[in-house]
Write a structure and sequence with these properties.
two-stranded antiparallel ribbon, 49% helix, elongated
Length: 619
């Protein structure tokens, strides 16, 4: 076997790359019998998967006390929104409704799921959990499993790239763990961003890069392109921002390689064109309806949904970790100065990891490693957004992403979320380093192992993940029997996009079946009055309820009558008043509700139900 390895080594160029290839691959070895090889490989995947799962469960162990009554994450209202969409998908399918367009929220205008973080692919995968244990449990299961699956996909994607030494599986396992529990994923877990903890496309594109670029002229380009198109369709119905980011940086990788190997472009180009055509063909055909919803579907926003200039990463986050990282060498309190909230502060790399990357680039003779490091650097620059932000201060120094600020669709990408590519590249560089680091002398071995250990330890997650209660009043949990699909319900407290439990009414509606429609919500949409809406407009009833709850004078009879007419004009058939959640003087707000609806109300399952005159009970 040593003779075979030596012969292959002699045929490699100065970068450790076969002259007929663009990226270096692992060395040839005498193979094990197929059955033994498959069994050993499956066993290693199982062990790694169990290891990652145990870490994920430990980080999120607080939710295990009550997985149906607690929600992972305590930064935004996104967890309630995800729980609603996870419930909506199986409900829509089993009731013959379109799961990608709905008017059960933001009635009567409805929502376009592809412009919301509806995660239909995950909702489908989690549907058995949802149907058995509810959407809150399904959301929690998804957040626990997301990093595990993402890490395992990277382990698989690294197969063609590592294995020159006997350290291949160790390298892949370490890299998978670094990616799964990277600062990026830790940040988005505490924010309840289910869609971003399932970061499977970036490692899939790493594997695709092997097939597209590693072997010289592309073999079976139509099949490779078709499989790539299938992966992109899957990401399209998971989360569109990650799709855009992945495609951009696959192109960036191709450009970096073309600049590194300009004489090989002509030989590669025909196969890449065929693969590209197959990819686009499969993507357009299988993703036709979701693409229609994105580009021309109903109730999509008619304007920019966010300010791209305010969604870049903080430059200091490169070296300043948040409280989600166990080892912090910066003074206490520095992380609180970072721009944005903790859920978007996932760009920590740190001095130890930076040192490892620099040493690996200088020491390891690997084209793959250097290309990945270059792409990682470019992704980090892109993640900073359109201008430099340092410890929360906008410096006005322009950056390359400014070129995308006016590009349709791409201007909706939040640059800070490009950090997922940076995290992937760091993990891949570590894998290649572990696989090929010099251990030929005691001194180099000690230095290499020490550097590796310091880098890995610097990314250890802290025991800082959070949960929050997800209570559901008995009225909703029992199915809200007095209400039916023809009812449009105003829930008090008002459902909003506010982070402090503003969207909990979505969770209540979902828990009821959903049994009724709502005008409010937390979403991305448009309506006749607003080009972009993230919640329904205030109406007179809501304004009056807030007014009296704040201790101000009772509204006039004329205002009360106008509030009643407005509810009727909006199609509201009932008001459900949930005491104990709004704060302020709820007794006065309850009396105001009686005045507006003209109904004394009925107390049922911990809530007050008021019907507007002329709307009959359904149950």
């Amino acid at each position: 076997m040593s003779v075979i390895v030596a012969r292959v080594a002699r045929r490699t160029d100065d970068d450790g790359c076969d002259p007929g290839r663009v990226l270096d691959e692992r060395q040839v070895r005498l193979p094990l019998p197929p059955a033994r090889r498959r069994g050993a490989t499956a066993g290693l995947y199982v062990l790694l998967g169990l290891g990652y799962l145990l870490v994920s469960l430990w980080l999120q162990r607080r939710v295990l006390a009550d997985p149906g009554g607690l929600l992972i994450g305590h930064v935004t209202a996104d967890a309630d929104m995800f729980a609603w969409w996870i419930h909506w998908f199986p409900f829509a399918v089993t009731h013959g409704q379109n799961p990608l367009v709905t008017d059960w929220m933001h009635w009567p205008y409805g929502l376009n799921a592809l412009w919301n973080t509806a995660v239909p692919l995950l909702a489908l995968a989690l549907a058995p959990v949802t149907l058995v244990a509810g959407s809150v449990t399904a959301f929690n299961v998804g957040l626990v499993l997301g990093p595990v699956v993402s890490g395992l996909v990277l382990v698989a994607a690294l197969g063609p790239y590592v294995g020159r030494t006997g350290r291949g599986w160790a390298a892949r396992g370490i890299a998978g763990a670094l990616y799964a529990f990277s600062p990026f994923h830790l940040a988005h877990a505490i924010a309840g961003h289910l869609n971003l903890t399932w970061s499977v496309l970036p490692p899939l594109l790493l594997l695709l890069a092997h097939h597209l670029f590693a072997r010289g002229p592309l073999r079976r380009p139509w099949r490779v392109g078709a499989l790539a198109g299938l992966a992109l369709v899957g990401q399209l119905v998971l989360y569109t921002q990650t799709l855009a980011i992945g495609v951009i940086f696959l192109v960036v990788t191709a450009v970096v390689l073309a600049l590194r190997f300009p004489r090989r472009v002509r030989a590669q180009l025909p196969g890449l064109v065929r693969a590209g055509l197959a990819c686009v063909g499969v993507f357009v055909v299988l993703g036709a309806y979701p693409l229609y919803l994105v580009l021309a579907g109903p109730n999509r926003p008619r304007g920019a949904i966010r300010n791209v200039h305010a969604t870049g990463a903080d430059l200091a986050n490169l070296l300043v970790p948040t409280r989600l990282t166990a080892v912090r060498t910066t003074p206490d309190g520095v992380d609180t100065e970072l721009g944005g909230h903790i859920g978007e502060q996932g760009g920590y790399v740190g001095l130890a990891v930076l040192a490892l990357v620099v040493v690996a680039v200088l020491v390891v003779r690997s084209t793959t490693l250097r290309v990945v490091a270059a792409v990682g650097f470019l992704s980090w620059v892109a993640s900073l957004g359109t201008s430099v932000v340092l410890l929360g201060d906008y410096t006005g120094i322009p950056l390359p992403w400014l070129g995308f600020a006016e590009v349709p669709l791409l201007s909706e990408v939040e640059p800070v979320r490009i950090q997922v590519v940076t995290a992937l590249c760091v993990a891949v560089v570590v894998a290649l380093w572990v696989d090929r680091m010099p251990l030929d002398t005691p001194a180099t071995a000690v230095g290499a192992v020490t550097l590796t250990a310091l880098a890995v330890v610097s990314w250890l997650p802290a025991d800082a993940q959070e949960v929050r209660p997800a209570p559901v009043p008995a009225f909703f949990a029992a199915g809200a029997a007095p209400l039916g699909p023809a009812d449009v319900v105003e829930i008090y407290p008002r459902i909003t996009a506010a982070w402090d439990d503003g969207a909990q009414g979505l969770r209540w509606q979902a828990a009821s079946g959903p049994a009724f429609r709502i005008r409010g919500g937390y979403f991305i949409a448009s309506d006749p009055q607003d080009d972009v809406a993230i919640q329904s407009r205030w109406n007179r009833y809501q304004i009056g309820a807030q007014w009296v709850a704040d201790g101000k004078n009772d509204p006039s009879d004329d205002y009360t009558a106008a509030a009643h007419r407005e509810l009727r004009d909006l199609g509201i058939t009932a008001v459900v008043f949930v005491p104990g959640y709004a704060g302020g003087d709820e007794a006065r707000a309850l009396d105001w509700t009686r005045r507006v609806t003209g109904d004394p109300g009925r107390f049922d399952g911990g809530v007050w139900l008021f019907r507007l005159p002329g709307t009959a009970p359904v149950g």
